[in-house]
Amino acid sequence: MPDVLVAVRNVSRAYSDGSVTALDNLSLTLERGDYLALTGPSGSGKSTLLHLICGLDQPSRGEIQFEGRHPGSAHEWSRLRSRRIGLIFQSFNLLPTLTALENVEVPMFGVLPRSPDRARHATALLDRVGLAQRLHHRPGQLSGGERQRLAIARALANSPDLLLADEPTGNLDSKNSRDILALLEELHHERGVTLVIVTHDPEIAGRTRRILRLLDGRIQSDTRQEA
Ligand SMILES: Nc1ncnc2c1ncn2[C@@H]1O[C@H](COP(=O)(O)OP(=O)(O)O)[C@@H](O)[C@H]1O
Ligand SMILES: [Mg+2]
Question: How far is the centre of ligand 2, averaged over its atoms, from the C-alpha of 50 (Å)?
Fold first, then answer.
């Protein structure tokens, strides 16, 4: 039996008056340890699916389960996001007035009450993503690639089981894109984190274990390939 981390069951998401169907009766499971590229044309529902999987948005019909349970309240979802799910979204802005170290510490507040523990852990994570020399820089003082590394370090703050990345290399040049992808892959292997990457880049999709392609809010194909 596969170890199912997330189950999406007959999920639809309609917007406003129902004229836009972002997702149309979609079902899929994410197994623990999956490494999945989510692809499909712009507007096919990729971001909507990620938002539903982490509870930032709710389906119009159907249900999302995390480890076999449907989180029934906004509070439960919020707790899952802070403890179990790491988000790397372009819209998830880093806090501009905080340093890199402080940005990574923010999600740790409910989990590590002692300030020195947070600082030590955040420093180790920033070191891990190659930002050991940037601990006290603010986001505005970092390059695009460095900001993305910082977002990854922050997403790892509470050792998530699931990492959701929405076009994490979208604003980066090819060298930085390759480096960020390599980093995400290493984290997947090192920590066994289940990794979902939304991408338009066929080179990225070619490296993952599983490719899920959406079209008009439905699954067009779901293929597994040799690692
Ligand atoms: N807040 C919203 N209100 C209305 N329509 C939306 C909203 N968000 C997304 N959509 C529509 O839902 C569809 C899927 O969007 P999205 O999930 O962002 O696609 P993708 O990430 O694949 O580009 C698109 O037609 C988009 O216009
Ligand atoms: Mg999108």
Answer: 9
